[in-house]
Structure formats: C-alpha cells, structure tokens
Amino acid sequence: MKNSVSRTKRTIQNARISFLLFLVQILIGFYSRKIFLDYLGTEVLGLNTTLGNILSFMNLAELGIGIAMATSLYKPINNNDQESICEIITVQGILYRRIAFFICGVGAIVMFLLPYLFPSTECGITYVFISFIVFLSGSIFSYLWNYKQILIGADQKNFKLLPWIHGVRYSKVGLQILCLTIFHWGIWGWIFWEFIGNIVLTIAINFIMRKEYPWLHTIDCKKDILLKKYHHLLTKTKQLFVHKLAYFILEQTTPLIIYGYVSLTMVTYYGNYMLILGYVSTLVNVIFDGMGASIGSLVADNNRTHIINVFWELFTSRIWIASIACIGLFYFTSPFISLWIGHDYILSDTTLLLLVISVFIKMSRGVVDSFKDAYQLFGDVWAPIIEAIINLGCSIILGSIWGLNGILIGSNLSLIFIVVLWKPYYLLKNGLKESCINYFIRYLYHILVIATCAYISTLYLGLFLSDNLLIFITHRIIGFILYIVTSFCLLFVSTQGMKLFSKRIISIISQKI
C-alpha cells in the first residue's frame, strides 16, 4: 500500500512534468492561435469550435465511465491486484466499444443535418463534412484503442505518458502551421494533419501502456459474467452520467448559445478569452489534479484525522491559488489580448469579470470534487439535473436580454447553487461527517479575505493611471504582488489550512536542499 510519502512524491513528479509541458503549451497555443486567426479566419475557427461542441453532445454516452473505472482502480492498485485491474479494464473496454458503435451511428445521422446547421459558410459544406469526420475519428480512436490510459492516471504515473501525448500534439500543430504559412495548403492542410495526429497519438499511447504494464490484458471470458461481477460499476456509471451531463451542458452549450444569440464571430472572441482562462485553469489543475489519485489512496487508508487535516489544507490552498490566478486574469487578460491579436478583439470589463467568477468557482471546486470521487458519493443525481435546468433556462432567458453577459450570468447562477452550496453539503454530510455550518463559515471567511485584498489592490491601481504601456503594466504587476502578499498573510495568521500548506511546502523545499 502506498504511504503518504510515495503519494506526495508521485504528485510532485506529475506536477513537475505537467508544469513544464504547460509552459510549452502556452507558447505554442498563443502563437498557433494567432497564425490560425490570420490564415483561417474567425469564421473557420468558430466553425471548428461549434463542430467540436456538436461532437461533445454525441460523447454524452461516455460520461461517468472514466471516473467510475478510475475510482474502482485505487484499491486493486494499492493491493497490487493485477487480476482485478485487468478485469476492470476489460469491463471498460466492453462499455467503450458499445459507445464507439453508438457514436458512429449518431455521427451518420448528424452528417445528414450538417447542411441545415451550416447553410452558408465561407469554407464550403465539403470542409464542414470532412472536419466533422476527422473530429469524429479522434473520438472513435479513444474509445476503441486509447481507453487503457486511465490505468496510468489512477496509478499516478501520468508523468510517463504526458510527454508523449503533448509531443504528438505539438508536432501536429507545428506541421499545421507550416502547411498554412509556407506551403499554403490552407484549411485542407490543417485538417489533414489533424487526422494524422489522431492516428499517431493512438499508436504512442498504446506503446507506452504496453511498455509500462506488460502484464495488462483483457480477460477472455463471457462478457455477461464480467458485467455481472462488476455490476456496481454500472450503477456508479449511471449516477456519474447524470453528474457529468450537467458539467457538459455548462461547458459545451455556452458556445452554441452564443452562436444562436450572437454570431460565430462572437464565438471566436469568446474562444480567445477562454483560451487564456483555460491555460491559467490548467496551471492550477497541474498543481492539484495529480492529487486526485492520492486522495483516493488517502481515503482508502481510513485515517480520519489525517483525512480532515488534508481536506482543510487543500481547501485553503486551492482557494488562495485560484484567487491569485483570477486576480491575475482580471488585471492582465484584456491588455494581453490587445497586444496579442489586436484591440478589436477585447470584450468589456463586465464580461471579463463574469468569466473570471466562473473560472474561480471551477478552479476552487476541485477539492470537494476529488473527495466526493474518493468516497464515491454519486447518489445525488437530482442535483446535476437542477444545475442543467438553471444553466440552460437562465442562459437562454438572460441571453435574449443581455446577450453574451446574460448567458454568462446564467452559467454562474447554476454554479453557485449547485457547486458552491450543494456539493460541499453533500460531501460533509455523507463522506467527511463534518459540520456544514463550520464549512460555509470558513468558505465565506475566505471569500471575505479575497474580496478585501482585491479591493486594496484595486485601490492601489486607481492611484496610478497612465497611458504609458510600461508604467501601466508595472503598476498592475505591483498591484498583483500586493494582493498575493496581503492575502497570504491574512490567511496564514487566521487559518489552520494555510499553516499546514506552508509547512508542507517548506518540508518539500528542505528535502530538495
């Protein structure tokens, strides 16, 4: 059984590799986005985004299987039970093959509807068809051949697979840029390398899995026997399906609603901001997401005192780091957009604030979600249904009144009611067995500290307004640092979680020295 030292060590290894790859992803992502905007145009990029969202609708059948399998792997991995691991992976393969065939059938139907969904695009209906087929192939490959990679994540060995995955993706983007800028193949060169990238990625993933787990194989027995033995996984999958459905609606329908109420061009503007916000969210996830398997192992150890201490440590540290990221986003996103692709692509400060609020809730929710997954608390299937209703209903109604801002307000309302209020209550009552009142008092206190420090930082910025870009950026950096220092000091002197987090960081640094 892995102890806390090995859990921490692997978490750090995953975080280190993910962080380095993330830095490369930022550089390539911003540069490639600029190239694609210049050579493909907002119409084509908006079309690709919308096609991706349509394909995500078709992937609804998968929702829940991945997490159900991952959480079920924690115990056999700790016990080195290779036979159970093979059985669980086999069950996953059976379910994923069924999903692959289902998506192929639905994809064929959707293709007949594409001319009606995109009656007039500058790239032509042929490109719409080819793009959809290429995006569809990527999903099919993942269901038929790439599904085993879930084991390497549950085993906290993502640091061995991620360099290969990112290497293939970066190479693909580089070849796409060459096709656009040097060979001038246009949209057809771009889509060709998109397809080749899917094939090479599948080969790379399976190569690493065979190398890392040579004993991994599918169980040769009747499917019904295995499905009956692991029927509890099917129950958890059904519950998780409903939970992930709400998350899907929140993430994937927003661009579609923007397209419906505004335009494909606004989808691209929104996508530019979400690219930046997504990169920063990824940075926070790089720091914390590797802890998901560690938390699963921690809960399996069943040391209640240690579990509670780790929960509050992660709770405070994640909220603090999420707040730093969001303050930075609010201060620097619009200036960066202006320098990157031009002032014409800038959205209003109100829109940016609504986006930042959404990102903060999503980044800070990770601790509660990870512990819920570790305890396998998926029974509140009504909650995501309510979340989906609030999100869709409010986004459509408010979007018809206030456009993009109304759509974002609707999304945020659904997050507040379910993610901020309900999910922590459900975890504390059924998993951690801790006081809900104590949790919400602590949560409100953290928000008060964040708001106070952000207000102080913003007051400082108001004292130094300048049209000089260098002076403008310098004072924003100073204001950003001011927020980091003041918020850390307040949380350190007033919360046990920040003290535990600081102690852990000092311990890690001391070991390195």
Automatic annotation (TrEMBL):
It is found in: Cell membrane. It is a multi-pass membrane protein. Keywords: Cell membrane, Membrane, Transmembrane, Transmembrane helix. GO terms for cellular component: plasma membrane. The chain crosses the membrane at residues 12-31, 51-74, 95-118, 124-146, 167-185, 191-209, 245-270, 276-299, 311-333, 345-361, 381-401, 407-428, 440-463, 469-493. InterPro entries: Poly_Biosynth_Transport. Its main location: membrane. The keyword Transmembrane applies. This is Membrane protein involved in the export of O-antigen and teichoic acid.
